[in-house]
From TrEMBL:
It comes from the Eukaryota. GO terms for biological process: cell wall organization; regulation of cell shape. It comes from Panicum miliaceum (Proso millet). This is ATP-grasp domain-containing protein. Belongs to the D-alanine--D-alanine ligase family.
Length: 924
């Protein structure tokens, strides 16, 4: 039974959307709840959010609780100067959600790109990117004069620091050295060991010295590249000097930052110099490209007593990169930043790997040995490669005695990640859940092990353990007294639309957050693809034939819906089940005896379960028999067009969000515009539209179509989008007939994406709907003013917004919550585009990417205009019959507050970094 959590903004919002059987905990700041009228099925609706008093400073609780038990005070430090600071924010948010509780109090800190430290509120962690609040830090957050002052503050205000800074300063020994000098205990590896392990070149040399197989590499230092030496290295490793394939990457950056493929000596030298000139690092390594190899990654957790290291390697994960045969992209297939952090079909993961048992045993034994020999502490993630066949660049005679040789091929270890990514579905949680750890339990295990290494923390750790047990006993007694009745909630996500990966992120976030409430019994469910494959046309298949799987904990934690579905099917394959079961038992047998020696270990809290398959109708019957409510997190398709809503309503099953009519209307962008066309006098306008069948566009003269569009829409540039698809999928700005030709060819060829900058104006990668949509909508492109967040100036002045104010229109997104007819507008977020004219999928949903200014700064939009805007949004929401919660995208005139509707999402994104949660977080 998990310990009670303190409510985060995500907990409060998502809990408010599920029906309570009991009052919310006193620590919550709930949204007022209501139901639809008794005349209809009880759909959940949320009334206007109520402002709550800000809780007393939780740090006081830690100082006054006494010796018999007190909360542990953890300092969570995120940010940093590297390009991975957005990922760091995601990790910090996830850690905060899963460790905070009555027995553990978290204080949040942020280090900006200029290496300035700030104490920030937990609400800031729910921003999409650090740029959302960077420019406000010096006026709204508590700053420290220097990093040494920051260290002194930590020494007196926290018991232990959990650094979640990825890359530079976080993993290179920087923050560790700062904490060591301030005598502040911290989670993770000491500074000297970090310095050696993080530097890819020095780590490779050390691994070679320690007797491990390594990938041949060549070091390039700033202003020290000698071309004849590089040419000689190419010859040594049997690569062609003209086109030999290599990987070029910084030696001291995250495992995905700045990693590129090069061909031949000249290309490799040029790309190495580019990495250096861009300031990513002043040292670069060139490695042999392991063409036939398969990448893997594994989490290592130390379960030893005090400083007696006893590392246990969890179930490794195989990284399968999808080598597309289509010509929609010229990018080489590597595990880069985008494939790692934006769920897509470009990469698939398999836990455990599909390697021979001897190879997996070699990986686990080698990583345990490596962890010890490099002096790592608490936990780490280590990447490597399995090469099933001999590689000419690895001389067999020289390496025959090194660790990593098996009869099936060679195992090599490459990147060492000293602070593993901790997003909700990261490798840490995937692998830990497979052997019995929930998110909370694995994080607390890591923290408690770190505490046990510091003699000064022994009394504190004992007091924390005492309080945890006391709370646990009290909670169990209360559960017995009140009975075991809980409100059941089934969270459904997935489907087969182009938004299915966002749906998985939304559903996972909802499920994990609702689990934090004792009176809810939450079950995650996957809406499987129609007929076992993925398309963008749910409506083409009979709903009766659709499948829904109820999922065990570990199967949810995948990066794509394809992986979740494959794992469900795989669970019935005897051979694969036997391998996974054997490895799980092996790992747990290593973990259990070691952890049982620690007084603080409360045991494993995730039991192994099988997924269960239902037809959609069987699942609805099961939900009804369980007396459950359905939390709909299926974006697009039958999840958002009124189909699921109709089926649930017919069965008398309560569910979240708007009803069938409003859902059906808002799914169709043309119908949405027509439904609000009469609201002009209320400050609501719509954008002119030209809807055309995709087949017609592909068969007609594109020049003729272009001329018709610009004449009818009275515009010079056009915005094209699918008529019934996601808010980012297939949306592009077209400036000439050639752009329309490129877009049409992508649809005709069923490209999964348009590469960046293939249209006439600069843009980011555009995810395309596959197969093509039945119809397209063309609109005038609305010009908005550019907003820039400046860098800190040399004279020391703070980062600030730069807005010329030449155009009165800006793009916003705003959440609406409440009962039908009483919808309440949250504070809008101004969306700032980073990669072109259209918000990309990354900017919408990939955590750490895309800037949102919430609420609109007063320097851009006056309070009067803001209130008029919110009033117009509420009128629009009520006119459309929305209820529960939805999201409206629009343009707003910052002078008048007039609103120009883009679209309405009745099942909005609920990922950890979406604006809906951030907008709610700012209410309290």
């Amino acid at each position: 039974m998990p310990l009670p959590r303190l409510s985060s903004p995500a907990h409060r919002l998502l809990r408010a959307l599920a029906p309570p059987r009991r009052a919310l905990p006193a620590t919550s700041a709930p949204l007022a709840l209501g139901f639809a009228s008794a005349a209809s099925t009880p759909r959940l609706a949320v009334a206007a959010p109520l402002r709550a008093a800000v809780p007393a400073d939780q740090r006081d609780l830690g100082m006054e609780a006494g010796e018999q038990g007190r909360p542990l005070r953890v300092g969570l430090v995120c940010g940093g100067p590297s390009a991975e600071r957005g990922v760091s924010l995601n990790s910090a948010r996830s850690v905060l959600d899963h460790i905070q509780g009555e027995d553990l109090v978290v204080s949040c800190y942020y280090i900006d790109s200029g290496m300035n430290a700030f104490a920030i509120s937990p609400a800031q962690l729910y921003s999409n990117t650090p740029s959302d609040f960077d420019f406000k830090l010096e006026s709204l957050a508590r700053g420290f004069h220097s990093l040494s002052d920051f260290g002194e503050h930590l020494a007196t205000n926290v018991d232990i620091v959990f650094p979640v800074i990825h890359g530079k300063f976080g993993e290179d020994g920087g923050i560790q050295e700062l904490l060591e000098e301030a005598k502040v205990p911290f989670v993770g590896t000491p500074s000297k060991e970090c310095q050696h392990a993080f530097d890819k070149h020095s780590a490779s040399l050390e691994l070679d010295t320690q007797g491990f197989l390594t990938v041949p590499n060549f070091l390039v230092e700033k202003d020290k590249l000698v071309m004849p030496e590089l040419e000689a290295w190419f010859q040594t490793v049997n690569l062609s000097k003209e086109n030999g394939k290599v990987i070029v990457k910084p030696t001291r950056a995250g495992s995905s930052i700045g990693v590129v493929v090069a061909y031949g000596v000249n290309d490799a030298a040029q790309k190495a110099e580019e990495i250096i000139s861009e300031g990513i690092d002043d040292k670069v390594i060139i490695e042999v490209f392991l063409e036939e190899g398969t990448e893997f990654t594994a989490i290592v957790v130390d379960v030893g007593i005090a400083n007696n290291s006893e590392p246990v390697v969890l179930l490794p994960t195989e990284v399968e990169l999808q080598r597309s045969s289509s010509s929609d992209t010229k990018e080489d297939t590597i595990f880069n930043y985008r494939t790692k952090y934006l769920p897509s079909r470009q990469v698939a993961y398999h836990t455990p790997p599909r390697f021979p048992a001897e190879v997996i045993d070699c990986i686990r034994q080698g990583l345990s040995l490596l962890f010890r020999r490099l002096g790592l502490h608490d936990f780490a993630r280590i990447d490597g490669w399995f090469l099933p066949s001999p590689v000419s660049s690895l001389p067999s005679a020289e390496n025959s005695e090194k660790f990593g040789n098996t009869k099936y091929g060679a195992v090599l270890f490459t990147d060492i990640n000293l602070i593993s990514g901790m997003e909700q579905t990261s490798f840490l949680f995937q692998q830990a859940s497979a052997v019995g750890f929930s998110h909370s339990r694995i994080l607390r295990t890591v923290i408690q092990h770190a505490c046990s290494r510091f003699p000064s923390l022994v009394p504190c750790n004992n007091a924390w353990t005492a309080l945890s047990r006391k709370l646990q006993s009290s909670k169990q007694a209360e559960a017995i007294h009140k009975g075991t009745s809980k409100q059941k909630v089934f969270v459904i996500f997935g489907g087969d639309t182009s938004e299915r990966q966002v749906s998985l992120m939304s559903g996972t976030n909802v499920w994990l957050n609702l689990q934090g409430f004792d009176d809810l019994d939450v079950t995650p469910c996957l809406l499987a693809p129609a007929n076992g494959y993925f398309s963008s046309h749910d409506q083409d298949f009979s709903c009766i034939s659709r499948e829904v799987w109820t999922l065990p904990y570990s199967l949810v934690l995948r990066h794509t819906t394809e992986e979740v579905y494959a794992a469900c099917v795989e669970a019935s394959e005897p051979e694969r089940v036997e391998v996974t079961s054997r490895l799980r038992e092996q790992v747990m047998n290593e973990l259990g005896p070691a952890l049982s020696k620690h007084d603080w270990f409360a045991g494993f809290d995730i039991a192994y379960e099988e997924p269960v398959k239902y037809s959609l109708q069987q699942w609805i019957n099961h939900v009804k028999e369980s007396g459950a409510v359905v939390f709909i997190a299926v974006h697009g398709g039958i999840g958002e067009d009124g189909t699921i809503q109709t089926l649930l309503e017919s069965a008398g099953v309560p569910y979240t969000g708007p009803g069938p009519i409003a859902s059906r209307t808002c799914m169709n962008k043309v119908a949405t515009s027509l439904a609000v066309d009469h609201l002009t006098s209320y400050g609501v306008r719509t954008i002119p539209k030209d809807a055309r069948a995709t087949e017609e566009v592909l068969k007609s003269s594109l020049v003729d179509i272009w001329n018709e569009l610009i004449a009818k829409l009275k515009t010079e540039t056009v915005c094209v989008k699918p008529a019934r698809d996601g808010c980012s999928t297939g949306v592009a700005r077209l400036c000439c007939p050639k752009d329309l030709e490129v877009y049409a060819n992508a649809l005709r060829s069923k490209f999964q994406r348009l590469p960046a900058n293939c249209l006439s104006r600069a843009h980011g990668v555009i995810e395309m709907p596959v197969p093509p949509p039945e119809s397209l909508i063309f609109e005038p492109f609305i010009e908005t003013d550019e907003i820039i967040i400046s860098n800190k100036l040399e004279n020391g002045s703070a980062r600030h917004l730069v807005w010329k104010g030449e155009n009165d229109w800006l793009e916003i997104t705003v959440g609406v919550v409440g009962k039908r007819g009483e919808m309440h507008s949250l504070n809008p977020s101004i969306t700032v585009k980073e990669s072109g004219d259209i918000l990309s999928l990354e900017e919408k949903f990939q955590g750490g990417t895309g800037i949102n200014l919430t609420p609109p700064p007063a320097t851009i939009m006056s309070e009067d205009a803001l209130q008029r805007c919110k009033k117009s949004i509420e009128i629009m929401a009520n006119s459309l019959g929305l209820e529960g919660f939805s999201r409206i995208d629009a343009f707003v005139n910052v002078r008048s507050g007039e609103v120009l509707l883009i679209e309405v999402n009745t099942v909005p994104g609920m990922t950890p970094s979406t604006v809906l949660i951030h907008q709610v977080s700012l209410l309290v």
